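Thread title: Can someone regenerate the structure for this chain?

I was given the following input by a collaborator and told the matching structure tokens would be attached. They weren't. Posting the sequence so someone can regenerate them.
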Amino acid sequence: MKEIYLAGGCFWGTQHFFKQVQGVLQTEVGFANGHTEHPTYEDVYTDTTGYAETVRICYDEHVADLTFLLRLFFRAIDPTSLNRQGHDTGTRYRTGVYYTSPDDLPAIRRVFDEEQARLSLPIAVEVEPLRCFFPADERHQDYLDKNPDGYCHLPLELFAYARQARPS
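Best answer:
Regenerated them for you:
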């Protein structure tokens, strides 16, 4: 089992999106790469902690490799938008790829290069090693499963797309 941490705006929709993907074994929402200890949702919401709403994704690399997951990630975000996804704005909603192994960097760079070649504006997604991750409290875990009519910045069609997606 491998893991990657992806910040794609509001973590409720990002988690729900990746839970649909074959080969994703586990997801957990939380806060990555800030500068305070044990932040709460309310702390992070102030945009003063440096954290991004992030999803920890554990996956079976033999079913869904990192390249496949990152290509899906780019379908679920606006990669040229800085500190904004959908109607959500603030540094907590920035996009990012946070890795735990330097061995992941070649795949990350390859996908970023592919995506940049398709875009006329520069990619605003940060790529950094994971410095810290604090899980969000239980009310935020699997939020859209618990609240099917809850807010989500992602279009519903993306969830069906994720369920049907297969590595090429």
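The chain has one domain: 2-164.
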